[in-house]
Amino acid sequence: MFDSKQSRFASYGVVASIPGELIDSIWAIIDNNLQGVFPLAHTLVFEISNNHGNVTYDYVQDHEVVASFDTPFTYTSDFPATIFAYDSGTQQTILLPREAEA
């Protein structure tokens, strides 16, 4: 699950909400920090928080933050509070919670 060799996408809602560098950061976190460290479900939950003006991704499992990842990217309150990463088994997509409900 979450194999970097599979096709990867970001939904329209994500592309319209956050810069490409932040999207790339999610894939890098999955590949370099979560893979092999945590058991990964089909849907991963990331909360975006403001850490002294920069974006921090909080990785959430079972409604609990289990790891936080600081980025050098400037935070803005326009960013969504939560982003999902979903692996269907053949492709992976980063999407907003409202897009997952559709």
Tell me what the structure shows.
This is GTP cyclohydrolase. It comes from Loigolactobacillus coryniformis subsp. coryniformis KCTC 3167 = DSM 20001. InterPro entries: DUF960 (IPR009303). The protein is α+β, with helices and mostly antiparallel strands and 102 residues long. The chain has a six-stranded mixed sheet. The protein is built from three helices and six strands, in the order E-H-H-E-E-E-E-E-H. The longest helix is centred in the N-terminal third of the chain and has 15 residues, at 20-34. The protein has one domain (8-99): enterococcus faecalis protein (Nuclear Transport Factor 2, Chain: A, Roll), CATH 3.10.450.150.
Describe the structure in brief.
By secondary structure, the chain is an alpha+beta fold. The chain has 3 helices and 6 strands; from the N terminus they run βααβββββα.
Strand-helix topology:
Elements lengths: L6 E4 L1 H6 L2 H15 L8 E9 L2 E8 L2 E11 L7 E6 L3 E5 L1 H5 L1
Parallel strand pairs: 1-6
Antiparallel strand pairs: 2-3, 2-5, 3-4, 5-6
- DSSP, total strands: 6
Spatially, the strands of the biggest sheet line up as 1-6-5-2-3-4
| CATH homology-level superfamily | enterococcus faecalis protein
How many domain units?
Answer: 1
- Listing every helix as H and every strand as E from the N terminus to the C terminus, the arrangement reads EHHEEEEEH
| Unreliable runs | none
Q: Any idea of the CATH topology? A: Nuclear Transport Factor 2, Chain: A
State the end-to-end distance. Answer: 23 Å
Specify the biggest β-sheet.
Answer: 6 strands, mixed
Overall mean pLDDT stands at 95
Count, helices: 3
Strand proportion? 35-45%
Our Rg estimate from Cα atoms comes to 13 Å
At the first level of CATH, the class is Alpha Beta
Proportion of helical residues: 25-40%
Q: In one word, what is the shape?
A: globular
**What structural category arises from helix and sheet content?**
alpha+beta
Indicate the CATH architecture: Roll
The protein's oligomeric status is: single chain
